[in-house]
Structure prediction request, 881 residues.
Amino acid sequence: MDTFVDREREFEVAMAQVQSACAGRGGFLVIDGSAGIGKSALLAKLAESGGAPTFLSVRCHAQVGHLAAYGPLVDLAWLIEQSTPRHRRLLRRSGEGMKTRWPELLTMVPGVGEALKMVAESLSGPVPGAPLVDHRTAARSMAEATLALLRAKHPAVVMIDDVHRIDGSSCAALSYLARAVQSEPVLFVLALRHDETPDNPAAQQLIDDLQLQGARQVRLGGLPPAAVEQLGRLLAGSTSAQVTRRLVDQTGGHPLLLHYCLGRGRPLAALPAADDVAGEVGLRAEDDADALLTRVRLVIQARLRRLSSEDLRLLSIAAVQGRSFHSSVVAHIAGQDHDVVAHRLHRLATETGMLYPVGADDWDDVLNADRYSFEHDLLQETLYRDQTERQRRERHRKVGRILYQHSRNFADLNQELALDLIRHHRLGGDWLSAAKVAHDTACRLAGTGASTREVIAIAEQGLHDVRHAAPVPDADRLRAQLIELLLTASELSWRTRPEADGTVRLEALSAEALEAARTANDEALQVRVRYLHGKVLLYTRGVPAAIGPLQEAWETALDSGDSKNILLAGCEYGRQLPKVNVEAGLDVLRRTEEAADALADDGDDPVLQRARHMTALQLGVSLLDAGRLGPALTRLRAAVPDVRRRPALGLLPIGLNYLAQGETAVGNYAEAERLLTEATALHDADEPDGWHAVNLAYLGSRRALDQHDSGGLALLEQARDEAEATWQANLAPLVANLYAASLIALATNSPAMMRKALSVLNETLTETRRTGMRRSEIAALSLLGEWHRLEDLLPQAMAFSELAVDHIRTADWKIPAVCVEEVLYRHSRIQEALGDEQGARESVIRAASEVNRKADSLDGDARVRFLRDVPLNRAILAAAA
Prediction:
């Protein structure tokens, strides 16, 4: 709105925030209200206020997925570059053609190039020389780069309009900025429609988080009578008190309607007569917002009554497609010639202003259509509501079918269009089609590197839809596929605690997938979900319950000869079998890798893609567990960059952990800490995550054990809390043992820390014996032996330590992921304290043999560093000598 009246209080609040930012106390201001209420006008008035700040204004557009990620922040970076004096600009050319190349161009901006290269990599695929990053890292880098760019404009006021349409990636970056700008002379002003924001969960979460952090919020309502009278004088020359009262009664002071009514100098021309509003009571500016919106719709309906029945029918059909619509789609549903409909829409746009043409893109060309947009959302909503439920449902189905038919020939179908397909099928009651599109969209998102949260949300929606579909084999097959995708994408945040009724949701889902695959009579799918069921049992009940189903799935896959099923079943069976037999597990993984190599590219199946990456990582870590450090590091150092390069449904934190373990084993402690720091930064703070807990625990233990830094305990305590929240049988004991070992190492003259360590170890021992996690049980027993030795309780120390050694001896000294030499070295010290010098000597000699065996897998400097720089190895070799 070009004309600005009233809003003194709101303007004062905004200016106070601007002045605070100019003083170095930055922050966020949220301005919300319904469509047309005057948010953009308030932003414009703020920008015109002048003064010290640099005002930068951008807006959000409807966008979904990574191709349009960071939309407003990209526009902001471009705006800052274009506002730089011409002789100082890095990018001398201008225009949209250059703007489309922003990722590679902005990498050259001094001071922030490296950060923006990371963002460019995450959005546009590999950029030569760019580090390969996860999307959460990219969001943080985008925030840091934005701050760096803004420093040239300090103090700065960044105004972002239409935030209800913002993309999730921008929300993540703005969340980082919310904390960072508190000590910067930067104010972010976000304008949004509060009634539409809940439809965008990422936007709603951002606003909720900002409010919790103290952001000011201003909600705009209708204008008061004095402002209506002032606006009447400005737009219509003059208004009487009677006209002003009627304007307030009929519009509630809504600026959008006031501008329409007064814009032609005829203030009553567009207002409905008293009998047109069915006797509704008029509204005042201070009345309820919902009642105001009802009045707005009544006024719009009065405007629509001036259309012919045929024009109204065309616009009603168009409203079903959405705020923007296509002439060819409207013509097809109306059953009319496209040229006739195109002409009528053009005339309506010219004569009524209710719609306007939108610039064509490739999708419009595929549809062979003109694209229009309604004048505002309230108009489209009124047209949509003024149809029967059956009409809307039938038209949604037709729109969905038309768009889906054309999408098959559209190679560049993006996530926004795909989600639009889901919406139409669902609103049309075509549950099976909606679920099919949801599965396809979730797979596309996973393949392009979008956040796993988006993938999970769409897969859950698809599962909801397919459960409403008729019970036919296609629906059962799709239900199993959606559960497979959902469980695979959400693995990092699986929760294994039983619900109130005693059921474990993970087990219920995997059982549902098994039943759906059986009902669909799809043998290949049955293999896929059978291995998934075994994987779930590993997390919920431990190795003994899981190994049988996993072995069965593996053997069935081998019998079928299907390389895809061999890859999926072998990946998981090969991950878990080493917990029982490391060599057998390695053999399964090698055969699985051969099956993966025989497959063509699996970019369209994120589950297969993840299994391929996981197999490569697991081979590396299984070699590490077997003590073949050199081959293990070679594999892991090659596999982790591959995972970075191609999204793999949250696999990167696991890969970084495996590589950090390898680097730690050979004494590369600084590199291990760097990898673990990166891994912990990938966590979505809104969800407990078992692998985030593990990475925190490893990072904390490195600081506690390698650097004797008590600050590591804070990380370990956080890890323990997170592991307790998810309680995954294979991960929680690992976290507990790392915590206990660090407590013991730092507990000099601290009885409280020793008591805590003993409590943690006793709990872990009980749990590992229940779940069959033998490796963690051995570690807990060895640590209990060490604890009792330090407390000078030598008989008890020997009892625990002997149990740990007996487990290893029974396995012929080959227990994967157990540091055999450390268990033996601790045991030798207890033997020595008890006076058993011969036994101590034998234990330390065997420990030294294990150290030398591992050293033999390394070459050159790596071997020297392993023997020289790893404290445990030095101590063992010195004792043996």
In short: Residues 86-133, 264-289 have pLDDT under 50 and may be disordered. DSSP finds 42 helices and eight strands in the chain.
